[in-house]
């Protein structure tokens, strides 16, 4: 007779899945409310979404249980908690932008906010597990929701962007599944920690199969992080999405993918695997360089931001390649500072999103911002501030993130890589300063719809103001922020 399996509640460690359950419960609550009434204002659903994100944030901040839980599928360590904080803060700032625009029809649908919470839960699952199966579930939960959210913008370019993102996302998902299958076949496990133990104890036997599976995983993560040559979807998706959503896509999904990359490549970095090292090195270099070159010739600001965000992702990926504790700290410092700066820049574009301009269509060409300082000096000054930060000009926020990452690269004896990173930072200055030149030195084009802060409501002004304050005053909190990051990274053993 087969003995029944007994599992205690304490063994499951249910608090480990509480952060995700909060957002899932919030999404289901919104859908249930919508079943009973369709007369509620969109602001109600925005506040509901923010409320559940705040509850989720409180659960994450107060979590102190065992890192392992739910049949060892969950891994809520310091890296997980830190990345969840970034995800929730970035998501909260994005949702606040929904209060600032009443004319976009997608915000009238409760399903939009339910999908958004499901997407956040997917990202949280991605960063809170080292099981390839649960990571895959998290990726698909977040991706399916994001595809639909992009399409709900209901413009021709939005539908096109959603289809492209879905098609390439499906290809990335198949790569992840196929790579996981190969690695499972070689190691007999889908948990990354156990997989590393098996590979180490067997001396990486069957290495060709390990390398093949790893290449598929790299391709899958390359799609999610928009790394070259898997970046082709990014410019069209950014252009087809609303400016607010494009800013979100450039930040939050990528931090989840970075954490997956950190956990996955740790097993190869620790043993100095030369093949994986050169593959990552090549991807980092081309991802930093190629989009930088393409961004130089862009005439639309949103597409320029798309290519520059790809380059920033390559910059941050260098931390995974270097693999030291300092580099890991630098990755999170860089992305936290990038969160506020980039979201602030996209929020400026979000201020003035109206019907098609008779001269420039519905895009954001540089010429549309010509002479902006004469029309709205505050808008021009804040946008210029964000551009200086993205360019890495001291003393603005992203300068410190770049310097810390380059310093970590030099300390790891990767001098050539550090030089490439510094040179590309210098190249990026050109296209960021180009917008400043148009705003401050070019003559205004008559009858052009321009970005004016006066068009924004208090909520949008608050988001932009918070981003600007962080960008300017970052030098005052870099050291405390590094200590906080170091604490979370330290308890994870990275």
Task: Note down, in words, how this protein is organized.
This protein has 494 residues and is mainly α. The chain has a domain at 333-494. The chain is built from 21 helices and 2 strands. A two-stranded antiparallel sheet has the order 1-2. Helix 15 (325-351) crosses helix 21. The longest helix is centred in the middle third of the chain and has 32 residues, at 156-187. The chain is globular, with a radius of gyration of 22 Å. The mean pLDDT is 85.
Overall 3D geometry? Answer: globular
- Termini gap: 46 Å
- Supply Rg: 22 Å
What's the total count of β strands?
2
Please indicate the percent range of residues in DSSP E strands (runs of 2 or more). Answer: under 5%
Number of helices: 21
Low confidence ranges: none
- Helix share bin: over 70%
Mean pLDDT: 85
The strand line-up of the biggest sheet is 1-2
Largest pleated sheet: 2 strands, antiparallel
Structural class category:
mainly alpha
Order of helices and strands: HHHEEHHHHHHHHHHHHHHHHHH
List key phrases describing it.
single chain; 494 residues; mainly alpha; two-stranded antiparallel ribbon; 2 strands; globular
Helix and strand arrangement:
Blueprint: H1 9-12, H2 18-36, H3 42-61, E1 68-69, E2 74-75, H4 78-98, H5 110-127, H6 132-151, H7 156-187, H8 192-201, H9 207-225, H10 234-240, H11 243-249, H12 252-269, H13 274-295, H14 301-322, H15 325-351, H16 372-375, H17 377-390, H18 397-411, H19 415-441, H20 458-473, H21 478-490
Antiparallel strand pairs: 1-2
């Amino acid at each position: 007779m087969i003995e029944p399996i007994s599992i205690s509640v304490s063994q499951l460690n249910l608090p480990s899945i509480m952060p995700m359950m909060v957002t899932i419960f919030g999404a289901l609550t919104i859908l249930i409310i919508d079943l009973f009434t369709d007369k509620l204002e969109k602001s109600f659903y925005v506040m509901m979404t923010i409320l559940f994100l705040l509850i989720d944030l409180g659960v994450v901040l107060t979590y102190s249980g065992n890192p392992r839980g739910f049949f060892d599928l969950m891994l809520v360590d310091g890296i997980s908690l830190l990345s969840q904080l970034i995800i929730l803060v970035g998501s909260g700032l994005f949702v606040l932008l929904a209060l600032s625009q009443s004319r976009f029809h997608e915000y009238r649908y409760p399903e939009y906010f339910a999908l958004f919470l499901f997407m956040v839960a997917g990202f949280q699952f991605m960063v809170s597990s080292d099981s390839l199966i649960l990571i895959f579930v998290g990726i698909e939960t977040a991706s399916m929701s994001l595809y639909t959210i992009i399409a709900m913008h209901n413009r021709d370019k939005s539908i096109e962007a959603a289809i492209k993102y879905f098609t390439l996302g499906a290809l990335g998902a198949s790569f992840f599944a196929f790579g996981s299958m190969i690695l499972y076949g070689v190691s007999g496990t889908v948990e990354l920690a156990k997989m590393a133990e098996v590979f180490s104890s067997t001396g990486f036997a069957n290495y060709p199969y390990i390398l093949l599976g790893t290449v598929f995983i790299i391709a899958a993560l390359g799609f999610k992080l928009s790394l070259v040559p898997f970046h082709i979807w990014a410019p069209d998706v950014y252009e087809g999405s609303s400016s607010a959503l494009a800013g979100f896509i450039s930040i939050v999904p990528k931090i989840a993918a970075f954490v997956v990359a950190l956990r996955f490549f740790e097993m190869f970095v620790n043993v100095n695997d030369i093949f994986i090292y050169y593959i990552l090195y090549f991807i980092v270099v081309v991802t930093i360089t190629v989009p930088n070159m393409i961004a130089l010739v862009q005439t639309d600001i949103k597409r320029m931001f798309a290519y520059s965000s790809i380059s920033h992702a390559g910059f941050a990926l260098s931390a995974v390649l270097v693999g030291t504790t300092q580099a890991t700290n630098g990755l999170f410092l860089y992305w936290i500072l990038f969160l506020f700066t980039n979201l602030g820049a996209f929020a400026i574009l979000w201020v003035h999103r109206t019907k098609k301009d008779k001269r420039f269509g519905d895009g954001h060409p540089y010429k549309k911002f010509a002479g902006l300082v004469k029309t709205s000096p505050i808008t021009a000054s804040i946008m210029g501030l964000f551009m200086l930060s993205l360019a890495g000009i001291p003393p603005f926020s992203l300068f410190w993130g770049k310097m810390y990452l380059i310093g970590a690269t030099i300390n790891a004896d990767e001098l050539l890589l550090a030089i490439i990173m510094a040179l590309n930072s210098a190249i990026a200055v050109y296209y960021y300063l180009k917008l400043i030149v148009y705003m401050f030195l070019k003559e205004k084009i008559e009858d052009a719809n321009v970005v004016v802060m006066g068009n924004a409501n208090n909520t949008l002004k608050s988001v932009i103001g918070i981003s600007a304050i962080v960008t300017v005053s970052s030098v005052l909190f870099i050291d405390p922020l590094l200590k906080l990051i170091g604490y979370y990274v330290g308890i994870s053993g990275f």
